[in-house]
Amino acid sequence: MEPHGHGEVYTMPSEMPAMFDGMKLAAVATVLYIIVRSLNLKSPTAAPDIIYQDTPLNLYLLKSCPILTKEYIPPLLWGKSGHLQTALYGKMGRVGSPHLCGLRMYLPMQDGATATFDLFEPLADHHTGGDITMVICPGIGNHSEKHYIRTFVGYSQSQGYRCAVLNHLGALPNIELTSPRMFTYGCTWEFAAMVGYIKRAFPQTHLIVVGFSLGGNIVCKFLGENQTNQDRVLCCVSVCQGYSALRAQETFLQWDQCRRLYNFLMADNMKKIILSHRGSLFGMSSSKMEDADLSRLYTATSLMQIDDNIMRKFHGHGTLKEYYEKESCLQYIHNVTVPLLLVNSSDDPLVHQSLLTIPRTLAEKKSNVVFALTLHGGHLGFFEGAVLFPQPLTWMDKVIVSYANAICQWDKRQSPCQATGKCTSSRGET
């Protein structure tokens, strides 16, 4: 810079503009790097990892369900992020979910509770000509009015399935509790009541059992609790469940994959549900809750604290460990003998990778179990789409119906020769 006096003009060195341009370029590169990492854009797309035994039924299922063996392609810009898949499922539910016309049923329980479920008749004939009912258990605090449930039911109806959807006890905001109890992690009473009603009301129907997240735990536990619960059941599909609450509780306190944040948000939602029924849960003379439990509920910041202070007491569990052990499907699922499809996603921020050894080991040991693990999908996301906007139907919706269709077709093929003893039902092998 040359010497200057009064009134002289400053001149910027020629290196300065280049330096500013370099800083801008570095800033842009940093932002792009963060976007690529956070959206997981470099992750490849792939077909699900399928674990199964080479039985005639399993080979037939994989041949009849090509969607299980083909590449799952999520939306390009955000679909490889398990967090965004999960967040969009939670906030948006589904794109353009249909408005369903069903009948709400009320079932009185022995303890004074009133279970409710919604019944939707098929909109077309089933391709096998049979009477098939999907009995569906939604995720935690969910019900038949959730967008992802409505989308799945609408699609199933169009494929010829009757659908019965359990409304978790206390989940519907406009339905009052009639006893001091609401849904828990593994209580099968309400689901059993719904299934029993369907079997009585439609004596010719066969059942496809479907569970989402917490609902997956409930349906697998229900089927494994008693062999008679599997009567007239053609198959079961569980999506995004965690299998063991006892093993999961430690992972839910970790910040890895932001699970501690998800834990806090889910706990906050559970608080709202419980407090919306405060009069029924805490005010009845038969209630097992005390004022101290209500005080601890207000300060709870995790699902485990709510489970320990509130949920375990509905069924008289002495400790949180006992509650998680007895309410998880882990000790029951090996009793399930009907065809069982277990679906999870590797980038599910709620289900830790360590929990996936449970379905993997089960599929390796039991011939009736198929375990499908996708690279992407988040928690109950599984959106599909080209670049930005997802399609109305998800990969998950299509997989469940495709698997159910194949099972129904297999069962129809086996039925004519069952009387001769030359072949077996859908549970066995030729």
UniProtKB/TrEMBL annotation:
<keyword id="KW-0719">Serine esterase</keyword>
<dbReference type="Pfam" id="PF00561">
    <property type="entry name" value="Abhydrolase_1"/>
</dbReference>
<keyword id="KW-0325">Glycoprotein</keyword>
<feature type="active site" description="Charge relay system">
    <location>
        <position position="348"/>
    </location>
</feature>
<comment type="similarity">
    <text>Belongs to the AB hydrolase superfamily. AB hydrolase 4 family.</text>
</comment>
<dbReference type="InterPro" id="IPR000073">
    <property type="entry name" value="AB_hydrolase_1"/>
</dbReference>
<dbReference type="InterPro" id="IPR050960">
    <property type="entry name" value="AB_hydrolase_4_sf"/>
</dbReference>
<dbReference type="GO" id="GO:0047372">
    <property type="term" value="F:monoacylglycerol lipase activity"/>
</dbReference>
<dbReference type="GO" id="GO:0046464">
    <property type="term" value="P:acylglycerol catabolic process"/>
</dbReference>
<dbReference type="GO" id="GO:0043401">
    <property type="term" value="P:steroid hormone receptor signaling pathway"/>
</dbReference>
<keyword id="KW-0812">Transmembrane</keyword>
<feature type="active site" description="Charge relay system">
    <location>
        <position position="213"/>
    </location>
</feature>
<dbReference type="GO" id="GO:0051793">
    <property type="term" value="P:medium-chain fatty acid catabolic process"/>
</dbReference>
<keyword id="KW-0442">Lipid degradation</keyword>
<keyword id="KW-0378">Hydrolase</keyword>
<feature type="domain" description="AB hydrolase-1">
    <location>
        <begin position="133"/>
        <end position="385"/>
    </location>
</feature>
<feature type="active site" description="Charge relay system">
    <location>
        <position position="379"/>
    </location>
</feature>
<dbReference type="GO" id="GO:0097524">
    <property type="term" value="C:sperm plasma membrane"/>
</dbReference>
<dbReference type="GO" id="GO:0008126">
    <property type="term" value="F:acetylesterase activity"/>
</dbReference>
<keyword id="KW-1133">Transmembrane helix</keyword>
<protein>
    <recommendedName>
        <fullName>Monoacylglycerol lipase ABHD2</fullName>
        <ecNumber>3.1.1.23</ecNumber>
        <ecNumber>3.1.1.6</ecNumber>
        <ecNumber>3.1.1.79</ecNumber>
    </recommendedName>
</protein>
<keyword id="KW-0735">Signal-anchor</keyword>
<dbReference type="GO" id="GO:0048240">
    <property type="term" value="P:sperm capacitation"/>
</dbReference>
<dbReference type="GO" id="GO:0036126">
    <property type="term" value="C:sperm flagellum"/>
</dbReference>
<dbReference type="GO" id="GO:0051792">
    <property type="term" value="P:medium-chain fatty acid biosynthetic process"/>
</dbReference>
<comment type="function">
    <text>Progesterone-dependent acylglycerol lipase that catalyzes hydrolysis of endocannabinoid arachidonoylglycerol (AG) from cell membrane. Acts as a progesterone receptor: progesterone-binding activates the acylglycerol lipase activity, mediating degradation of 1-arachidonoylglycerol (1AG) and 2-arachidonoylglycerol (2AG) to glycerol and arachidonic acid (AA). Also displays an ester hydrolase activity against acetyl ester, butanoate ester and hexadecanoate ester.</text>
</comment>
<keyword id="KW-1003">Cell membrane</keyword>
<dbReference type="InterPro" id="IPR029058">
    <property type="entry name" value="AB_hydrolase_fold"/>
</dbReference>
<dbReference type="InterPro" id="IPR012020">
    <property type="entry name" value="ABHD4"/>
</dbReference>
<keyword id="KW-0472">Membrane</keyword>
<keyword id="KW-0443">Lipid metabolism</keyword>
